Structure formats: C-alpha cells, structure tokens
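[Q] Does anyone have a clean structure-token version of this?
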Amino acid sequence: MLRQSLAGLMLWLALGCSPESIPADSGLRVISLSPSITAIVVALGATDQLVGIDRYSRDVKGVGHLPSLGGLFAPDLERAVELRPTLVLAVSSAQQTGFFAQLRARGVRVRELEPYTLGEVFESYREIGDLLDRDAEPLIARIRAELEQIRASSLNRPRPSVALVIERDPVYVAAGGTFVDELIRVAGGRNVFGDLQSRYPQVSLELLAERAPDLLIDSTVPDLDPARMAEARAHWARFNWIGRVEFIAPGVATVPGTDLAEGARLLREQIHPDLHLSQVP
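[A] Here you go.
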C-alpha cells in the first residue's frame, strides 16, 4: 500500500499536477471505460464530452479517434491524468478498485455502474443521461418498443429451452437475474439456467447434460469467423446429448449497451428460425 501511495505521488510530481489543477467549471471531460457505456454516451448525443475511452470502445462508431487508456481491467493511470477528466464512467470491477481510488483522491468523480437486469440497464441510461445533462427517456422508449415488437412476434409459439454460453471451456452461461435471461424470454425461449441466481456461473458438463437444452447458443466466436465456428461445432459435437447448436457474435446480446433490441432479434432468429423475416420486425 505504501509503495502504491509513493508511486502515485511521484506520478503527480512528474506531471506537475495537483488535485486542484483539474478544472471544476470548464465543462465535463468524460472518460468511458466500457464499450457499453461508450455506446450509451454516443446514443445520448454526448460524444463531444468524451476525452478518453478504453481499448474496446474504439469499435463504437464515432469515437475511434479518441485517446485509448488500454484494457478494461488495466487502464493507464498516467494517460488518464493527462486527459484531465472531471468524470469517469465504468462498470464496477474489483480489478479497477485501486485505479478508481487514485482518481477519486485527485478530485475526479468516478461513477461505477452495475446494470445486471434489463430494468437496471435502462436505469443506467437515465443515470448517465443525468450526469451528462441529456434526456435518456426517448432512447429508453424506443428500445422498449422494439423489444415489445419482438416479444409479440413469438407469442403463442412453443418456447424451446435455451442455454446461452458465454465461455466455452470451462463452460460459463447466462443465468437468472440478468438482462440476457430476459432477452431470451423476449425472443421466445426459455433459459434452462434461469433458476440459477449467480448471473453468469460456471456450470459442469454434467449439469448441462442434465438440463438438456433444445438449443445451445454459443456466443464465444469472434466476428463469427467460419473456421472458428467449425471448430466450436466440432467441440460441441463430442457430446451426443447436445442437440441444435447456433451462434451469435460475442457481446451482441450479452453487453448492456444500446443494442438490446438487435440482440433480441438475433436470439429470436436462432430460437425461432421458421419465423419468416418479412413477417416480423
């Protein structure tokens, strides 16, 4: 702890900074350390308030030119200080506790978000909107309406049992108490792990076999690369108790950003492939 404190002090001396040097009234200077949060900031029309992002946010349209602080769990403190933020937005993480503490000690406001359920995701829109002086209600209303259209398209149809895999080896799945579980239901499926309350648990192959989902959705293949999908299919084909296996891109239905409706649509395509595209939104 002493070594970390001394390192932080030396950093500030080297940069010629002090907590008072961060401007208090020159407008918001925001760093986003999560691609889902960055997408929300952009959707709320506050891109101009961003001064820095994490490495994975560079894929969000319109922010690729901004300075990057590196990975989600090891952001660059020196770079963050140089950007002189007044507000840092991030997903709550034990790995970043020390980083956040050092920013707060320098007068930077840090807001850690924990959007687990669909309702909490929408509430994160509102909170970010309040922090940035933007109205989040139109965005929330639009996404809610799109989700309701998707839900309506699969009403009165059979609800296949679904396991959504977010890590293949070992197996991690989306369970109850998550917006992913809710999106599966919106898309007309039933999550076989919906009764588990640890959100994204590791499960054994034995438990997966016991639950015997009608459909296993693998969300682990980057960019849905054909060669990697073939490799994943071969992996699951080793288990004769696994039936149909389909794929969605990582993050498309598992990141609490602004693409929730798109994620639900893609899940519906896998859960109910017989729904004619021209007949559904």
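[Q] Thanks! Anything notable?
[A] The CA atoms of residues 188 and 272 lie 8 Å apart.
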